[in-house]
Amino acid sequence: VQLQASGGGLVQPGGSLRLSCAASGLAFSRYNMGWFRQVPGKEREFVAGNTWRSDSTFYGDSVKGRFTISRDSAKNTVYLQMKNLKPEDTAVYYCAAGTIHPANWAVRYIRYWGQGTLVTVSS
Fold first, then answer.
1. What's the pLDDT score for residue 47?
2. Alpha-carbon distance 68 to 108, whole Å?
3. DSSP characters over the chain
4. pLDDT tier at 71, thresholds 50, 70, 90
5. How far is CA 69 from CA 31, 41, 42, 58, 94, in A?
6. Is the C or the N end of the chain the one with fewer CB within 10 Å?
7. Cβ contacts of residue 22 below 8 Å, gap of 6+?
8. Residue 5 pairs with which residues in a beta bridge?
9. How far apart are CA 53 and CA 69, in angstroms?
């Protein structure tokens, strides 16, 4: 199984980025997909999750109203559209796949992780 994340980079405060995660080797349509993020010295934090039926989405409190998760089953890809970025959004973002419902996601419930993509929000 591979989760290949991309789209990170340097952006100014207030800017936007879109992360992508291309999945291979797993039954994409049967997995809940999402994103976590982590900064050095802190625990990995839940950002967003999307159910395998795409009928529900969930967000961490710090990103609600600014980030949007979506998935394209034809491309086995999940996206994270990030708007109005803040310096505190700076982190390595990890794509995640799991069978537990994302409303209850924690690090210990994730079955597969991507390699991470760095997002830096700075002027």
1. 97
2. 23
3. -EEEEE--EEE-TT--EEEEEEEESS-GGGSEEEEEEE-TTS--EEEEEE-TTS--EEE-TTTTTTEEEEEETTTTEEEEEE-S--GGG-EEEEEEEESS-GGG--GGG-SEE---EEEEE--
4. very high
5. 14, 26, 23, 8, 13
6. C
7. 3, 4, 6, 75, 76, 77
8. 21
9. 13
Phi/psi for 93 (5° steps) reads -100, 130
The rounded percent of the chain whose pLDDT value lies above 70 is 100
pLDDT, tens digit, 9 for 90 and up, residues 3-62:
999 999 999 999 999 999 999 999 998 999 999 999 999 999 999 999 988 779 999 999
- Cα→Cα distances 103→18, 32, 99, 112, 122, Å: 22, 10, 11, 17, 31
Q: Which two tokens stand for residue 81?
A: 């559209």
Separation CA 114–CA 120 (nearest Å): 18
